[in-house]
Design a protein that fits this description.
One of its GO terms (cellular component) is cytoplasm. Pfam families: Lactamase_B_2 (PF12706). Residues 118-314 form the Metallo-beta-lactamase domain. One of its GO terms (molecular function) is N-acylphosphatidylethanolamine-specific phospholipase D activity. There is one protein chain. This protein is an alpha/beta fold. It has one domain: 4-Layer Sandwich (Metallo-beta-lactamase, Chain A), CATH 3.60.15. Helix content is 24%, strand content 20%. It contains 8 helices and 16 strands. The chain has helices at 2-23, 33-39, 62-74, 169-175, 189-194, 262-270, 294-303, 326-337; strands at 45-46, 49-50, 100-104, 110-114, 117-121, 154-158, 179-185, 202-205, 210-213, 216-221, 241-245, 250-253, 273-279, 306-312, 341-342, 350-353. A hairpin with a 5-residue loop joins strand 3 (100-104) and strand 4. The longest helix has 22 residues, at 2-23. The N and C termini lie far apart (62 Å).
Length: 365
C-alpha cells in the first residue's frame, strides 16, 4: 500500500510538472506544423533546429558540470552589489531635434530614440529572471528609471532571442497595447502570439533580412548563441543581433553572443557605427562560446567598426560566478589599452550620440 501511494505521488508530480510546462503561458508558444515547416526553410536551420554559423559547443564534461555545481554552491560574496546602485530617474522622453539618444535600463534593456521613432530593445522590467516571480535572481536596483506603465508609446520593440532575461512575459503583457510593432528573429513571434500580441504587429526576420521603417533601416544580423524557454524547445527559435541605421546615426546591438567572425562581416556590410551596444557580462571560460569575455567585447567593437561603445548585459542580475563589477572593469582596461571610445552611463542616464562628451563616471565603485 505504501509503495502504491508513493508511486501515485511520483506520477502525480510528474504529470503536474508536464502539464505546467505544456500549458503555462510563461513558457511561450510553439509553431504550428505549417509554421514549423516554413521555419525549416531557413539557411540557418538544420537537423530540426537553428544553428550557429560556426561550431558552438558548450563544455558538458562531467568534471565541468561538477565544477559549475561546486561554484554555485560556494557562491561569490562579490557577485552582487553590497549597497544600492545609482539609478537616474527618466522623467520625460522627448525627441531631440539634433541627437539620437539611448537610455539604458540595466542588463540589455535599452530605449533608443532615433529619427522620430522610439525603439525598445529586449524589454525586461521584472524584478526576477525566473519564470516564477517569487524565485530566481533578483534585480540589483530596487527601482527603475521609469515604471513600465509610464513609458510613452513605443514604435518598435526589438528582441534578440527568447531567453527569460531578454524576452520577459510580464513585460510583454504590460507593453503590448502601447507598441506598434514587434521585430523578432524567426520563431519568436510564436511566444508573442500566445501572449496576446496581434499577428499584424509581429514581424519575424532571418539573418540579413532588412526592413525599411519611415527612413530607418533595421537589419536582423547573426549572433553566436542559442535559444529556448522550456525543456523541449532548445534552438527551435532563432537568436540575433541587430543593426539600426538612421538618417544621421548607425547603431549596433549585439544581443547575447559569443565572439565570432560575424562581427567583422557586420562591420564590412553596415559599419562604421556611431554607437555599439555590446554584451560584456555573465561570462565564464566554460561557456565562452555563447557569451564573450570582456576583452572580446572590445575586439567585437573594433570588428564592427564602432566609434563609441556602451557595454551592456551587466549591472542588473547575476548569471555567472564573476564579481558583479568585473565585466565593466575588464572592458575599461582593455579599452584604455586600445584607445577605444567608451561610455559608462548610470542606469537611466541618457546618452546623446554625436555629443561632445559621453557619460564616463565610475559609478559602480
Amino acid at each position: 500500500m505504501i509503495l502504491r501511494v508513493m508511486l501515485s505521488l511520483v506520477i502525480g508530480i510528474l504529470l503536474a510538472g508536464f502539464l505546467f510546462l505544456k500549458y503555462h503561458p510563461v513558457f511561450g508558444g510553439k509553431a504550428s506544423k505549417e509554421k514549423a515547416n516554413a521555419l525549416s526553410q531557413s539557411e540557418n536551420f538544420a537537423r530540426k533546429k537553428f544553428i550557429n554559423q560556426i561550431p558552438t559547443v558548450m563544455d558538458t564534461r562531467i568534471t565541468t558540470m561538477v565544477g559549475i555545481l561546486r561554484d554555485f554552491m560556494k557562491g561569490n560574496p562579490n557577485g552582487k552589489p553590497k549597497r544600492a546602485i545609482p539609478v537616474e530617474p527618466l522623467n520625460s522622453v522627448i525627441m531631440p531635434d539634433k541627437y539620437t539618444k539611448v537610455t539604458w535600463f540595466g542588463h540589455s534593456t535599452l530605449l533608443l530614440e532615433m529619427d522620430g521613432k522610439r525603439l525598445l530593445l529586449d524589454p525586461m522590467f521584472s524584478k526576477t529572471l525566473s519564470p516564477f516571480s517569487s524565485i530566481g535572481g533578483k534585480r540589483y536596483s530596487k527601482i527603475l528609471p521609469i515604471e513600465l506603465e509610464e513609458l510613452p508609446a513605443i514604435d518598435v520593440v526589438i528582441l534578440s532571442h527568447d531567453h527569460y532575461d531578454h524576452l520577459d512575459y510580464q513585460s510583454i503583457k504590460k507593453l503590448k497595447d502601447k507598441v506598434s510593432q514587434f521585430y523578432v528573429p524567426l520563431g519568436v513571434g510564436n511566444h508573442l502570439a500566445r501572449w496576446g500580441v496581434e499577428a499584424e504587429k509581429i514581424k519575424e526576420f532571418d539573418w540579413w533580412n532588412e526592413y525599411k521603417l519611415d527612413g530607418l533601416t533595421l537589419v536582423c544580423t547573426p549572433a553566436r548563441h542559442f535559444s529556448g524557454r522550456s525543456v523541449s524547445d532548445r534552438d527551435t527559435t532563432l537568436w540575433s543581433s541587430w543593426v539600426i541605421v538612421g538618417q544621421e546615426s548607425r547603431v549596433y546591438f549585439s544581443g547575447d553572443t559569443g565572439y565570432g567572425p560575424h562581427f567583422a562581416k557586420i562591420g564590412e556590410m553596415y559599419g562604421p557605427f556611431d554607437l555599439t551596444l555590446i554584451e560584456c557580462g555573465q561570462y565564464d571560460e566554460r561557456w565562452s562560446a555563447i557569451h564573450m569575455m570582456p576583452e572580446e567585447t572590445v575586439q567585437a567593437h573594433f570588428d564592427v567598426k564602432g566609434k563609441i561603445l556602451i557595454p551592456v548585459h551587466w549591472s542588473a542580475f547575476t548569471l555567472a560566478f564573476h564579481d558583479w563589477t568585473d565585466p565593466i572593469e575588464r572592458v575599461r582596461k582593455a579599452a584604455r589599452k586600445r584607445n577605444l571610445g567608451i561610455s559608462t552611463p548610470k542606469i537611466g542616464e541618457t546618452v546623446f550620440i554625436g555629443s561632445v562628451e559621453y557619460p564616463n563616471s565610475i559609478w559602480w565603485r
